[in-house]
Write a structure and sequence with these properties.
Elements lengths: L9 E3 H8 L3 H10 L5 E3 L4 E5 H18 L1
Antiparallel strand pairs: 1-3, 2-3
Length: 69
């Protein structure tokens, strides 16, 4: 779990979706599959994403796409 000081640097599902140009449901699906690391916070278990984890996810996807093509 990220340190409490890092929490302000985390992104919501909607923010990640806007950054990547995909629906929020796609971000949730990737999170459920473990493709992008999410942290659950608060009593409702809302997802938060570290910027570094989103960047790693994007790099991994780009590498896989490059190797396929």
């Amino acid at each position: 779990m990220p340190h409490y000081k890092e929490m302000g640097n985390m992104l919501t599902t909607g923010e990640v979706a806007r950054l990547l140009g995909v629906p929020a449901s796609t971000v949730r699906r990737w999170s459920d599959r473990g493709e992008v690391k999410a942290y659950r916070i608060g009593p409702r278990g809302e997802r938060r994403f570290r910027r570094a984890d989103v960047a790693t996810f994007l790099l991994d996807r780009a590498i896989r796409k490059y190797l396929k093509g």
